[in-house]
Amino acid sequence: MKLAKRVASLTPSTTLAITAKAKELKAAGHDVIGLGAGEPDFNTPQHIIDAAVKAMNEGHTKYTPSGGLADLKAEIIKKFKEDQNLGYEPSEIIVCVGAKHALYTLFQVILDEGDEVIIPTPYWVSYPEQVKLAGGVPVYVEGLEENEFKITPEQLQSAITERTKAVIINSPSNPTGMIYTKEELAALGEICLKHDILIVSDEIYEKLVYDGHKHVSIAQISPELKEQTIIINGVSKSHSMTGWRIGYAAGNKEIIRAMTDLASHSTSNPTSIAQYATIAAYSGSQETVEEMRQAFEQRLNIIYEKLIQIPGFSCVKPQGAFYLFPNAKEAAALAGYHNVDEFVAALLEEAKVAIVPGSGFGAPDNVRLSYATSLELLEKAIERIKQFMEQKMNR
Ligand SMILES: Cc1ncc(COP(=O)(O)O)c(C=O)c1O
Predict the structure, then answer these.
(1) What is the pairing mode between strands 116-121 and 164-170?
(2) Which family does it belong to (predicted)?
C-alpha cells in the first residue's frame, strides 16, 4: 500500500530509536544504563493516583467536553493566576492529550500550506515534524552555544518572511536546559508584535528550574504579548504524569475554539480519569513537585561537575529541565570517530551507556544525557564514559 505523501518524510524520533536499541541490548542480557529518558523517574504522587481511583469508582468514566472538564479548566486558570499572574477565561483554555497533542492541534489549526514557523535550534524533536504534518515549513534559527543556545532578536528578525506565521519559544529548553530571561523575551516579543507573529511558548519544564534561576513566560511581559502568545503546558514533567497524557494550551479564544472543534473530531476528549487526576494534581499539595525539583537539582550539580572533567566534553551548565547537552565533537575525535553519531553508537555498543545524539535536535556536535534516573546509575554511567574515553585515547 502506498502511504500518503504527508507521512513520507516523517522522521522517527531519535530519542525513541536509541531507547529501542538500549532495550534490545538489555533483553539480550547486557547491563545497559539508559540516559535517554524524557520523563521523570519518580512515581506519580499517591494522592493523584487516589483521585483517579475515586473518579472511576464514582462513575466518571464517560465522555467529557472536548476542551476538558469545567472543573479542570478552573484549576488551570487558578494555577495561571497564582503562578504567573495571568488571567484566562475558560474559553481561552483547551485540555489536550498531553502537551504534545496540544502543540499538534495548534499547528493544525494555524498553518496553511507553505506557512513558516521559526524553530530555534537545538529544538525538541517533535516541533519540525508537527509543523510539516500541518503543511508548514520549519525555518531554523541557530541558537549558538556561546549564547547559551538562545537566539538573538537580530537572528529572529532576519528569519522573518511574508510567510512567517509563528515562532516557538521553549524555555526551559529540551534539550539544552536553558532559560530565556525576561529581558531577552521582551526583545524577541517586540519583533513578534511588530510583524504579527504568533508566539508558541512551550513551558512544560516550567517547574524544573535550578540554582536560583527563574522561569518567566513571555506572556507575563505585557498584555499585548499575552494576546500574541499561546502557552503550552501540562502535568507530565511537573507531576511525573507522562503516562496520563494531560496537557493544555491557553490563549486567543478563536484559536482555542478551532483547536477544540478539531479535538471533537479526533480525540473527543482527553481521558476522563486522567482529567480528574489532574484536578487533584493542581488542587492538592505541591510538595512533591518541589521534592522532585530538589532531587533533580542535586543530581545536576553532582553530575555536571563530573561530566566536564571527561576529556573532550564541554557543557554550558543547564538551568532547568532534566538534560545535559554537552558538546562532544572533540570527545568523538579524541576517541577516533568521524562524528558524534558514530561515537554515540560505539558508546552504547561498547560501554553500554545509551545517550541521544544531538543530530535529532538539530545540533550534531552535541549529545543529550537525561538525569531523570537515580544518582547511583548516573555516577556509574559517567564512570563508564570516562573509562571508554581513557581506553580509546590510550590505544
Ligand atoms: C519540550 C517538550 N514539549 C512538550 C513535550 C510533551 O509533553 P507531554 O508528555 O505532555 O505530551 C515534551 C516531552 O518530552 C517536551 O520535552
Answers:
(1) parallel
(2) Belongs to the class-I pyridoxal-phosphate-dependent aminotransferase family.
Q: Mind listing the pLDDT tens digit for each residue in 177-230?
A: 999 999 999 999 999 999 999 999 999 999 999 999 999 999 999 999 999 999
pLDDT score, position 262: 98
pLDDT at 238 over 80: yes
Pocket test for ligand 1, best of 237, 239, 244, 278 (most atoms within 8 A of CB): 237
Last residue of some domain: 283, 309, 339?
Answer: 283
Residue 22 corresponds to which amino acid? A
**Grid coordinates belonging to 75:** 484549576
- The pLDDT, as a whole number, for residue 19 is 80
Q: Report the chain's mean pLDDT, rounded to a whole number.
A: 96
Cβ atoms < 10 Å from Cβ of 344: 24
Phi, psi (5° rounding) for residue 194? -60, -40
| Residue 134 sits in the same domain as residue 104 | yes
* Ligand 1 atom index nearest CA of 247: 10
Q: Average of pLDDT values for 258-262?
A: 98
Ligand 1, pocket residues at CB < 6 Å: 38, 98-100, 124, 170, 174, 202, 204, 234, 236, 242, 247
Task: Look at residue 337 in the predicted model and tell me its pLDDT.
Answer: 97
